[in-house]
Amino acid sequence: MDVIFVTGGTIHMVCRNKDKAEEARADIVKETGNKEIYVHILDLSETKKVWEFAEGFKKKFKSLNVLINNAGSIMSQRDVNTEGLEKSFAVNVLGIYILTKSLIPLLEKSTDPRVITVSSGGMLVQKLRIGNLQSERGRYDGTMVYAQHKRQQVVMTEQLAKTHTNIHFSVMHPGWVDTPAVANAMPDFHRSMKDSLRTPEQGADTVVWLAISEAATTNPTGRLYQDRKVVPTHLPLAWTHSSPLEEQKLLLLLEDLAKTFQPH
């Protein structure tokens, strides 16, 4: 599933694939006995529809406790959506930015609001680049583009945490999980590492902990987590650090881009 909203005991699953979403919903209802599980169909690569969904959600619901951004897209070659945006950027970065920013007023009405974004350890090999957001220049390497987007998610989380201090923001690395996305995007890696990859349940553990545990919010907002612990966003002595100015500029660029697709 791409995005999860929690409002009280109600869970809203925002998914692209209706059949898979309904299957997951049935599993959750069976496992928990909670029938307050709702499916919304949305493709995060369609930027205007992300805006429309967020605005519609705000009209229907009065508050939002937890927002989990889990959408991720790795493309084998550069492709653009109907709005002219590079598709994986639209899903991994701009869609998540629009959803989060748009729903902040609802989150602020909750007593313990949280936003969790699922990133990837691949971002550790990427320095923030704001001059090529659409991957128009250079050879298109889908895995590296994805890793860059995951770095952008970390920076986005840090910046939003500074400006919305009453919401607990976090970003997490689930470890290397045996999923179809990993198998399809990195077949050699998947083949050689298959026996040591995590199950989806193991990968989701820290997300769930960040969403519901009291202990999670005792840590400062805007941090990166792995295995329920705060971890550095850069490797030791890494060249991946960027300036505060560049990091602020990313948010300004996303804000300007988001506004161009906002329904009037």
UniProtKB/TrEMBL annotation:
Coiled-coil regions, chain positions: none
Gene3D superfamilies in the cross-refs: NAD(P)-binding Rossmann-like Domain
SUPFAM superfamilies given in the database record: NAD(P)-binding Rossmann-fold domains
Domain of life: Eukaryota
The protein's name: Dehydrogenase/reductase SDR member 12
Natural source organism: Ilyodon furcidens
